């Protein structure tokens, strides 16, 4: 229920400004430190960009003040830094989620599953090496999301390439 209400509140406020299309150009922001939910509502209202996000894990999280000139996407990144959420533009607004971390996690699990099916044919040291590499990729993806508020296309490609290389090695 909390998930639905959080999404509804953000989307509901954004719908009030739906007549004005999402303004993508840089705008001056002068937000005080406030709860993340309030900051995202304010972002949606001031830019006309609906923000889709599940705030349940971040219900009472405070974000630092936001001062400066940013595009709506850049403002979103500033607001969600440190949360582990990733911010992305959508066709009609903005979205914050963990989609890239989830994709890395799913591919990492595929590598782990393949390792488990091949336990008899690869050494314990090789298994540990793969697990260390997998953990490094997952840790780096989460760290970048926290530090930047997004995972870039290049970073995403690098993570998937590393995991794909492990999958290909294991399939040989």
UniProtKB/TrEMBL annotation:
Natural source organism: Pseudomonas luteola
Signal peptide bounds: 1-20
Keywords, in A-Z order: Lipoprotein, Signal
Lineage of source species: Bacteria, Pseudomonadati, Pseudomonadota, Gammaproteobacteria, Pseudomonadales
Protein name: Lipoprotein
Top-level taxon of the source organism: Bacteria
